[in-house]
Design goal:
By secondary structure, the protein is α+β, with helices and mostly antiparallel strands. The strands form two sheets. Strands 1-2-3-4 form a four-stranded antiparallel β-sheet, with no helix packed on it. The protein has a three-stranded antiparallel β-sheet with strand order 5-6-7, with no helix packed on it. Helix 1 runs antiparallel to helix 2. The protein is elongated.
Length: 135
């Protein structure tokens, strides 16, 4: 399948993960060096947060193919495969997210795609792309 459109994770989301993780890592390093009984295992969590930030910097949150789209919102979340013909409704009424109602296994499901998670300016492009797909 050929990729028609791809929308990367927003830089603000990646920066929050990277710089937040680095800030907490510095704080924990100072705490570990100054407090004798401070365990070092919280640094492992910080490394996971920084790793997720690095992973998010190079991946696409939404990838649109010829007849379906893939949505991956978080590293541990499931990959949502949505066929364009299964999309029932695109709800743009909320300013924070796009609600995509679609059919999966005969049941209607809703996927809420936060606008803050994808690149700025991708909102109108994604909506226009989804609306022009044949049903």
């Amino acid at each position: 399948m050929e990729v028609q459109k791809s929308y990367k994770v927003a830089k603000s989301t990646v920066n929050a993960q990277l710089y937040g993780g680095i800030g907490v890592a510095i704080f924990l390093m100072v705490a570990i060096l100054t407090i004798r009984q401070m365990p070092a295992y919280p640094l492992g969590f910080v490394l996971v947060v920084i790793g997720v930030g690095i992973w998010n910097s190079s991946r696409s949150a939404v990838t649109c193919f010829n007849d379906y789209m893939e949505v991956k919102l978080a590293p541990i979340s499931s990959l949502h495969l949505i066929r364009y013909r299964d999309i029932v409704r695109l709800d743009q009424s909320n300013k924070k997210y796009l609600a995509i109602d679609y059919l999966a296994d005969g049941k209607e499901k809703t996927l809420k795609l936060p606008w803050s998670f994808i690149e700025k300016g991708a909102k109108n492009s994604l909506i226009a792309f989804l609306q022009e797909q044949p049903v």
